[in-house]
Amino acid sequence: MLLAMLAILGLVVDSGLTHATRRQARRAADAAAQAGACSLCLGTNTTQMADARAAAIQYAGLNGVNTNGNVLVQVPPGAGSGSAYAGSNGYIFVQVTLPVGITFMRLFTTQRTVNVTAAATAGTAPTPVPVTLQALNPTRHDALDVSGNARINLPSGAIAVNSSMNDAISISGNARITASAINVTGDVSGPESHITGQLNTGVPTPSDPLTNVDEPRITSSSQVTYPDGYTPNNTSLDSGGTALSPVTKSIGANTTATLNPGIYWGGISLSGNATVTFRPGRYVLAGGGLHISGNASASGTNVFFYNTRDPYSGGGAAAYGSIDITGNGTINLKAPTVSFDPVYGGLLIFNDRANTEDINLTGNGSTGGTTGFIYGKSSELSVSGNGSVGNLGAIVDHASFSGNATMNAPGVAYTPATRSVQLME
């Protein structure tokens, strides 16, 4: 009887220790997988996958695991992992093995330890940006200024204004704002009857939903590198200058031209009666910005413009430039869809986060075909004129709408997606 009781006691104690250790292994594997997946939110190139492995091992250690041989990390999950996401980029597999010392059961076996194992798979999933228009500046008066007969028409989109000022939103004249929700950290100055939608004031400051979208990096005098590892986007054959001698690519008069993606050292300027077609792809404006004026017309589908500076030269065309689409011609520029470009899908214009130059849109011409999001963390968006500036979303430092300009919302296919971490298995 005594031996039977000791055997039962040993079984209960050792089983309890095993289950407790398994819970520890599970917690460590879950935490490690999620930490690694955070690194994959920035991309899946070689460096980012190495960062994901390092983060997973670090967090396994922080959860009490001896990382010397007790942690297996695979990015992406390997074929032998048993994961449903084996071989899929954007996912990480972590397996934690912990030894458990046997106590009472040593009376009945020569085995001194048993190993318990737990595994987890985490990944990144695209989540559509939750706002259509956001002003990021937290302390600016009139962070969203709507005047004259301007119309912001976003019936299925949300507006967020981060400013805590009493006049964070200023609305005057016959201006109108329509959105499904208008969330303001501060308050509204002007007639609230001109606002259609759920108005919420005094809300906590919203975050920048595109903060995890990595910028392109100019890595040499002839090359730009992207977070998805794409590197062939070198100096465009159509660029007007070089890294050491930037010159704005200017097209005017009655010229008809087709431009190819790549780096434009000194930016692009269209004027007169120029008619220009942009081929699909990523355009890097290294200094000079983008200017479309006069009766110039521009069209392009699946085009993305990154507006930065030329780091290899100084002043003039090498400096940060503005985005000015202010002419009377036909502007029909469409951002890449999310399916065409998983990194920058939905983004038409991305201002370098340090670029404080303005983004100016004037709807005097036929610009209604312009579609996509504008991102300018440090820039003002100024919308004016007498017509529609297109179906656009914007996340900028602050924004002003005046004149008779109207801005409508882009479709779902042109809404950027941020990467969020999810524990899959």
Strand content: 35-45%
Per the principal axes of the C-alpha atoms, what is the gross shape?
globular
Number of separate helices: 2
Question: How many structural units, i.e. domains?
Answer: 2
Distance between the termini: 45 Å
Average pLDDT reading: 88
How big is the Rg?
A: 28 Å
The main sheet comes to: 19 strands, parallel
Tally of extended strands?
29
Task: Determine the fraction of residues in helical runs and give it as a percent range.
Answer: 10-25%
Task: Indicate the low-confidence ranges by residue numbers.
Answer: none
Structural class: mainly beta
Structural notes for this entry:
This protein has 2 domains: 2-128, no CATH class; 208-418, no CATH class. The protein contains 2 helices and 29 strands. It has helices spanning 2-40, 46-62; strands at 71-74, 91-101, 113-128, 133-135, 144-146, 151-161, 169-171, 176-184, 188-189, 195-201, 217-220, 223-225, 249-251, 256-259, 262-265, 268-270, 275-278, 281-286, 290-292, 297-300, 303-308, 323-325, 331-333, 347-351, 359-362, 371-384, 388-401, 406-408, 417-423. The strands form 4 sheets. It has a 19-stranded parallel β-sheet that branches. The longest helix has 39 residues, at 2-40. The two termini are 45 Å apart. The model has no long low-confidence stretch (mean pLDDT 88).
